[in-house]
Each structure stands twice: as structure tokens, then as C-alpha cells.
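Review form for a predicted model. The reviewer records the input and the model, then writes brief findings.
Reviewer: anonymous (R2)
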Amino acid sequence: MLAKKVDIPRACLNFRFFASTIINSSSANHSSFLENVGAVNYSIRSPIGVAGLISPWNLPIYLLTFKIAPAIAAGNTVVCKPSEMTSVTAWMMAKVLNQAGLPPGVVNMVFGTGPNAGAPIVQHPDIPVISFTGSTVTGQAITEMSAPFFKKLSLELGGKNAAIIFDDADLEKCIATTIRSSFANQGEICLCTSRVFVQKGIYDQFLEKFVEQARQLKVGSPKMQQQILEHWLARSTWLRC
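Model under review:
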């Protein structure tokens, strides 16, 4: 369901947004003054060359296009390494880009595992910038591999988000919000809640109601309109839990 509601629509918006920056910017520099906060928002079009883009599996199209669109809008070419667990969606998107008339060689897809496909991109001397979304452990490895080349890095790594519930809070609203934030996309997003701190006075009550609502979540096919949770992507994910 998240692919239908978020992944594909947001992927389209990514391309439209960064395409609009090209159309609406008359020069390499574009700025606007935000009077309400007393700040200047500006962007500079300064191509680097070839960007290495490594994306995850949990929102495979949205997060990949969020890297591709700004890179090519700035005048770069890209070498993409999508997750080996969602390679088909990336392959299909590459076909769409080709059908849309994107010149050959602007967006390049490399399929494979991290050690076999990702590492060569990170260590290639002619790729000066790397954008990675994924685990903290892999992000650390990318930092170490790219350090000898002094590459520019953009790393979006794992989160450990907390919900804090005080005893004067609206318990029903808090439980509904915490359930939603904990189990969105089966909990397979870095912004999901993974820790809940509850004030002692309402702890037992919160725990009872939270468990009760969590047990009501249904698991099934994305084609089932009433379901909330889909299956985990891989057995390895289940084993880590």
C-alpha cells in the first residue's frame, strides 16, 4: 500500500520539483529571501561530474529518484546501485527514463550486492561524490572506503526514534499515533518509532492498550484494502528481530 500511496507518487514529484528548478532558475545561482524567519534560501548549480547513488529497498523508487533528480538537474551523470532486493523496480524505472528521452549514459544502473557492485562505485577514482541511504554500519564502511579519495559524501543512515508519553497526555491519541509511527511500512523505515518512554503513572495502562491495538493489526497482501501491514521483505529481516 505504501508503494501505491507514497513511493510512486513521490517519485514523480521528485522529478517534477527538480525539473521546475531548472525551468525557473535563469542563472546558475538562485536565491529567495524568507522574510518570516529572516533567512536566505539559495541553491547553486555547480556540476561535479559523476555521482554514485546507492539506495535502499524500503522505498525503492522514491529514495532512488530523490538522488537521481537533483543530480542530473545540476548537470551531473549518475551511476546507481539500487538494493539487490528491489532491483526489478529500478530496472523498470530505467526503462521509463529511456522512453522519456533521457540521453544514454546520463542515468546508469548497476545491479548486484554491496561488496560486488556498491564497493567498486565507492572506490572508483572518477566518481567524486557518493550518496547513500541505508544502515549505519554500511555508512561507516563507505566513509572508510572513500576517505583515501576525499570524496564528497551524503549519508542518510538508520534512526533510533523515540516517543515520550507524559501522564497528562491524551492516552487514546498517543496510542494511535505511536502505533502508526511504529508500524508504518511494517516498521521498515528509519523514521519509525523504535523506543517508547512512558511516565510511570500511566505505564501499565499504556502498555496494555498499546499491545491490544498492536494485536489488531492485520497482515496480508497489498491488494487487500483493509490490511495495514504487508509481509516483511526478506527472512533475514525477521531473523534480525
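Findings: Residues 2-24 form the longest helix (23 residues).
Further findings: Helices lie at 2-24, 60-73, 87-99, 114-123, 136-146, 171-183, 203-215, 235-240.
Recommendation: see findings above.
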